[in-house]
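Data deposition worksheet. Section B asks for the primary sequence of the deposited chain exactly as it was used as input, without tags or linkers unless they were present during the calculation. Section C holds the resulting structure in token form. Section D is free text for depositor observations; keep each observation to a single sentence. Incomplete worksheets are returned to the depositor.
Section A, Depositor: J.P.
Section B:
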Amino acid sequence: MKFIETGIKDLMIVEPAVFGDERGYFFESFNEATWKAAINDVPNFVQDNESMSHKNVLRGLHFQKPPFAQGKLVRVVKGSVLDVAVDLRKNSPTYGQHFKIVLSEENKKQLYVPEGFAHGFLTLEDNTIFSYKCTNVYNKESEDGLLWNDLELDIDWGMENPLLSEKDKVYKDFLNFTSPYL
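Section C:
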């Protein structure tokens, strides 16, 4: 397993070692000892989630406010997504900056999104299955988000009219956002 820095502190690409042959493939999507040996900081995952989405569905940019903030290890089981994380940590030199990466069933890359980030993804294929491990449980009262097409964040999603939930259409913009993260 390789841990690759993204240019935003604590946000990491995780590339598993994939073993394949004529039967198919095998890989470890998470191994506590491997994380500890590589980065000396092992997230305590307490909840696993999975979603299925059709092509051009955009979910995000979501986060949970403290004390229910969540770190997430995200990956695609089937299909592909454009995955985006936005740094919301006020004291970070990369505050307000985003990182994006294509995650797919072919490349098997994962992204570790620590607490203090908004996260979202755009599905690039029908019936995309997205999986994520979380460091905290879901709490409806702590749920929040930012507008996916915020001009200040300037995220190029590669499309203008994705399929959105009603709540994703009305989140606040970045200029009117007060971050709960230090």
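Section D:
Residues 52 and 129 are 4 Å apart (CA to CA).
The first helix runs from residue 32 to 39.
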